[in-house]
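User: Can you help me understand a structure? I only have the sequence.
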Amino acid sequence: MPKNILVADDEKGIRDTLRRLLEYEKYSVITADDGVDALHKAENEFVDLVLLDIKMPGMDGMEVLSRLHKSQPELPVVIISGHGTIQTAVEATRLGAFDFIEKPIDADRILLVIRNGLAQRQLIRENISLKAEVQKKTQIIGEHPDIAEIMETLQKVAPTNARILIIGENGTGKELVARAVHEMSPRANEAFVEVNCAAIPEELIESELFGHEKGSFTGAVSRRVGKFELADGGTLFLDEVGDMSHAAQAKVLRVLQESQFERVGGTETKQVDVRVIAATNKDLQKESQAGTFREDLFYRLNVVPVTIPPLRKRVTDIPLLVEHFLQETAAELGQRPKKMSKRAIAELTEYNWPGNIRELENLIERLVILTQKQTIDVEDLPLLGPAKNLEEQFLERDTYNEFREAVEREFFVRKLRACGYNVSKTARKLGMQRSNLYKKLEKYGIPYKRSREDEDNEESSA
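Assistant: Let's start by predicting it. Here is the structure, written out as tokens:
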């Protein structure tokens, strides 16, 4: 698709010359003969670059440039002037001009400037797109009270340099929370560096964190910069910090206390400014009491603890998460987003989710790829395994009324499922009026299907 160039000049000869030159180079050209017209077209048509004369009636080029830079700062504007001075060029640059060209116009020069201006615009667009993608990847989905409380905590602590310890099972989104903190912090434009302490062999963890000098150990064939140096000015995320060796723990403690360290095999002291966020699936307080994790390091890391609930504790968020992953997967595959039926979502809420949100995300991706229909239903779901255990499902309810309703809902779900979701058959099995069963199903949001028998019964009762 050709790029759109706006040529704004009050001289018709200049406009026509530039139009012929640019159209020969396969650009699409829009013209304006004064400043007001130029501003109107730049703001109401899709323009990739502007060639703007300074001396024009009504509104001069400097005023147009100033207004465009405020409304579209990413739009490259090239100033063209027959009365060029150093002072004018400096003023144009100050107002946001990409470049300054004097008349008479040199064709090769202006084509080079246009190519450079369009390349810069493309880079700006890609940067905006990447930032939007990062923000999407740091979006925490959920309306459960625990999630709302976590978000409130993060908003308070993110602008500070306070260290955070994120606690949660595998797959609950600990890295997502860490990235969200980084994006909300003043360090957002600096590096976010991740270290998975569980995935690095014990003998290499110190080299990974602090770097090493050439020849410091077998295999150290060159100098290596460690993660602390790479994260200088930004954020270092120590994932599964509970699996770190005692020797590495001691060095990390020193960095947290003094903000300095030496590379493995080195003598030069390195000074760094790093915010450390740690995460673990272990109870580090118990680990420290047992002597498997340094107690002083635990207290250094645990300035602001954030505990992420497992998915089975926040099943009310499953519909939101399903919708999010359906949209995300469709975007990645370049497809129209699929939907999931209420029955299928209800089935997902009954599962225990040992892999938490990561398991749900992987399942949705698989279903989107393998399901041919536009709506994913119960029969498309794989056998998910055992449902929640008794304690998780019922005994952890806060009130007797919540416990009673949870038991009653599970009773109806199981009976309806056993009868193939046939309401009339289920009502007969339970010895209750079909209308009363409908009311219970509606009350608890239990999906069902109307069989031919149900429809016939409704017609006869009518």
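Now, to help you interpret it: The radius of gyration is 32 Å. The chain has four domains: 4-133, 159-309, 313-380, 391-461. Let me know which part you'd like to focus on.
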